[in-house]
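User: Continuing from earlier, I have the next pair ready.

Assistant: Great, send them over.

User: Here they are, in order.

Assistant: Folding the first of the pair now:
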Amino acid sequence: MSEQLAEAPSVDSVDDRSDHVVEVTEAALAKVIEIRDSEDDPGSLALRIEVTGISGIDFVYDLAFVPLEEAEDDDHRWESGGLTVLVPADSRDRLGGSTLDIPNNPGQGGLVVRNPNRPNPLGDIGTLDLAGEVPEKVTQLLEQRINPALASHGGFATLVGVEEHTAYVTMGGGCQGCAMSQATLTDGIRAAILDAIPEITDVVDATDHSAGDNPFFT
């Protein structure tokens, strides 16, 4: 059983115990237990919820029944309405605050993970020693960390200028006119600049996306 769909969190959970990484709604719980009970020795099975990758601006998930005896020592484990749920250690932060539910559209079937967390589309930016005035720091961050990540999508980002505490950035190459570029700027570039350069409190996309030619994404 696998799941790759994410929606905004908007449902009530079965309970509010703080040790639950993922809350399971009553409807989802009933569905999961129905499926589990059709398996051999259902009492020995736990539901493992794991982040397995990234698709666009969302995580990709895998939901599977696994024998409790195969649980890893560092798995986060809890009980939800008679169901044992496992989340691997490396998925815990990325799933924190999520809800497992059924789709809003009854005809869709399956389950959905409503996750408030989003992956950084630029990947792990890491740390960097920045020097000079604020514009120089922003340029160094773009050239040494952000643009190498954007290069895989045929794009690049350029600093237009800094006014007071705002950095103005344009996106070129495959990022100009790209349907994903706004999310990349908001979730990736903006977050990286604000985190690395405390003098900057806002980042504005100054790109004329209507002029984009042959964008990497359409």
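And the other member of the pair:
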Amino acid sequence: MELGPGEPAAGPWRVEPIDVFARSVTSAPPRGRRRVIAVDGRGGGGKTVLADRLSRTLGSAVVVHSDDVAWHHSRFGWDDLMIEGILQPLQAGEAVHCRLPAWERLGRPGHIDVPAETPTVILEGVGVSRRSLTPHLDVAIWVQSDFAEAKRRAIVRDLAETGRTEAEALLHWDEWEAEEVPFLLDDRPWERAGFIVATTSPLPHDPETSVVVSG
């Protein structure tokens, strides 16, 4: 696996059923009224898929995507919005009903909603386990992926979801990567991860029912 700049290789790897992994992730009591799990990793690395599978396995978890918080605001300078709009209400045991400033300014409909009775919230996105958010998290998962494969996946997704041409998608990725690489090099979230999961897997497994975990 070719890793991104500064990221050390994890391992040894083992295949683990997703329900066993979910029990491990939620084994410690939450520090607040809700358990907050961060699924972090590079763009295109498979974070969204892992977060959704973990949410389905847990059964009562809600996923909050950093892309929604960051929408038309900043690629990485959105941690204050995450803390004030999402994490502080969660820690107070309140429902989240968050409409971000850029949503209001540009007329995006809807809100980010987390019902008050939700026991577990999964934050998903590049930077959701950054230093400034760590005091608000119960556990962080780092998704380790092949650098080139993550780019390929991101381009395919961009072409399918946005209507960009291939040239536009490649330019968008290059602009993203120009900010992502120095951000991650400085923050080094893999060093704070309680679990590391490989999504460009070194071991054969069924990704619908299992994960490849380091350690």
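Worth noting for the second one:
Residues 14-60+118-214 form a domain with the Rossmann fold fold (CATH 3.40.50.300). The mean pLDDT is 95.
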